[in-house]
Amino acid sequence: MKSGLSKAARAALSRRGLLVGAGALVGGLATLPSGMARAQGAAGAYPLQEFFKPIRSVGAALSPNGDRIAVGENLGTDAAPLSAVDLLSAADPEGQRRRISLGAVHITGLEWASNDRVLATVMMKGETGSRSRAGSNLRTESVEFWMRRVVSIHADRGDPVVLFGDQRNQMRGTFDMGRIIDLLPDDADNILMAAWDGDGVLALHRVNVNTGTPTRLERGASGTYTWRTVNGVPVMRHDINTRGTMETVMVRAPGEAEWRMARRTRVRDAPDFSWVGPSDRPGVVLVRARLDTEDVISVREMDLATTALGAPLNSRPGRDALYGLKDSAGRYLGAAYYGERLEYEFAEPALVPHHRALNRFFDNSCDVALTDVDRARNRFIAYVNGPNEPGAWFFYDKDARLIVNVAQARALETDRLGVGEVLQVPTRDGQTIEAYLLAPPGGAPGPLIVLPHGGPEVRDYPSWDRQAQVLAAQGWWVLRPNFRGSGGYGQAFAEQGWTRWGTRMQDDVEDAVAHAISLKGLDASRIGIMGTSYGGYAALMGALKRPDLYKAAIGICGVYDLPEMLAWEERQDDSADKLAYQFWTKRIGDRTRDGAALQAASPSRRAAEINCPVLLVHGADDGIVPFIQSRRMRDALRSAGKSVELIEIADFGHADWEDAREQDLMTRYVALFRRAFA
Known about the structure:
Elements: H1 7-12, E1 57-62, E2 68-74, E3 83-89, E4 98-103, E5 105-112, E6 117-127, E7 131-132, E8 139-140, E9 144-154, E10 158-162, H2 168-173, E11 179-182, E12 190-196, E13 202-208, E14 214-219, E15 224-230, E16 233-240, E17 246-251, E18 260-266, E19 273-278, E20 284-289, E21 298-303, E22 309-313, E23 323-326, E24 332-338, E25 342-346, H3 352-361, E26 367-373, E27 379-386, E28 389-397, E29 402-408, E30 419-426, E31 432-439, E32 448-450, H4 466-472, E33 477-482, H5 491-495, H6 504-520, E34 527-532, H7 534-545, E35 550-556, H8 562-572, H9 579-588, H10 595-600, E36 614-619, H11 628-639, E37 644-649, H12 659-677
Parallel strand pairs: 32-33, 32-34, 34-35, 35-36, 36-37
Antiparallel strand pairs: 1-2, 2-3, 3-4, 5-6, 6-9, 7-8, 9-10, 11-12, 12-13, 13-14, 15-16, 16-17, 17-18, 19-20, 20-21, 21-22, 23-24, 24-25, 26-27, 27-28, 28-29, 30-31, 31-33
Helix pairs in contact: 8-9
């Protein structure tokens, strides 16, 4: 078994050491020998700024026939972007790389259009230029902006072509012309893309990848934001409301001329319907959905003519399907789930031992996501990510018994990072929840930071989390609980948190904290809490309920007044029948029926009970949780004579600011906790 690791890769992936020929798992894929599992570093934890260095490699992609590998490399900075695509032979992935420069752009993704052409989605800077209108001597100032485009590159000749590049008016009129809809696996010359017409309506185009020339196929409706296709034929269309919270799914069966509404569903909050791909039966596609009588979301068939949903495929009790896995031809291979780590229920049993072997190679401590599978199901690209693995791409050749690290996101040594583990937390009412505990480098007992997730009907994963690693690098333990009301564990688990904001959901967080302190002997006198969105709510509610426990609280874009938040949702909801508002009423509570409970569960209405210093951060243009929530929380704390600071982030929304701002904020978060723990 060849090692496939360069010197740089060995340093970055020191936890795993070198591949050797001992302990074969599947066809020679090896385990690690004793004593090589972890390099012993003496440099200590990383300083905060190391976590914010630009990501160099952004991904690796495998050609449909499995013969070539493309790697996207960003070589410049945000201020001075520079990028390239490296091409490797899959027959010799450790051999010489051929580099094709793309110039002053920033790569965000890679896909193969055919066996000869690779597509790079890029961000490039544009400038309006100073200009004056005809008949006027008044000039407008030049404005710099970013725009998204797709560049088609020939693997042998280079020959980069900007798709839509010959549509100068259209290129000038839209920031985003990088939406790939269908790679058309059986058409080497064309792909399907969506682009905005001049009137702001999205249109579907067939685009020649050799010339960049588009041919418009059809226009969407006023709210259309994407299509789904089978063999290049649009069969599903998604139309979104103006606020971006609800979508209408339209379908068109083969032979039909008109679109029909199939269903309306949520886009952002606990979505329960999504596209997977074509099936092997005409007029039938695969989707990810849950019936009202079922507990979990599963991959299943959908008849386009009747919109009827079939029985679940490859389902798993107590776990929602995350997505459907497909090969380069678009054929369904199985469903992804999150159990102990990322796992697949394969439709092809022959793939099971290979994914299991890859997991063993990474010590069963990382998520091994198959991102590309060739048509022969022999060669794979796997994206590997874990608590102390910031992301790397590996090429796996089943027949050649070879695994090679071809790209890595960050040059961080794993032995200088925090190590994670999964906790099974007993709750006060006899149930069990999962929580993820990250130890600081070295694992010495010390303070604890609690990071409740947002949503709340999403979930945390024991994967790479930069925020958690920054905190662990300070010598602090970090806890991320999946309290009841989280998503991913099925509908019954989520419903246990409905109308339990500030009570059961908060109790689960406190139970996880007590369990971690007891298990690891942590310093119960130095506990902090911070979170974003719902996590910001949980941080302030925790400080309110347990003033004896938390020494500082940080809320980022949080909800702090539940009645006011529900009233705002009702005013903002432009969906038919107020479906978005109904969604939140069901989960938070009814303002008329539950008024007293909602007020009691609102931190801004009980600010006098908070004793620890509070830091609030909020984007001024937040369209998910309005900025006024943080402003009123600050005002309530000030009126109660409490220590509080509010940082308003101008021109940004729901915690969507750039890395430079996030680095500055993380520095302030760390400083607050240090003062509180002193």
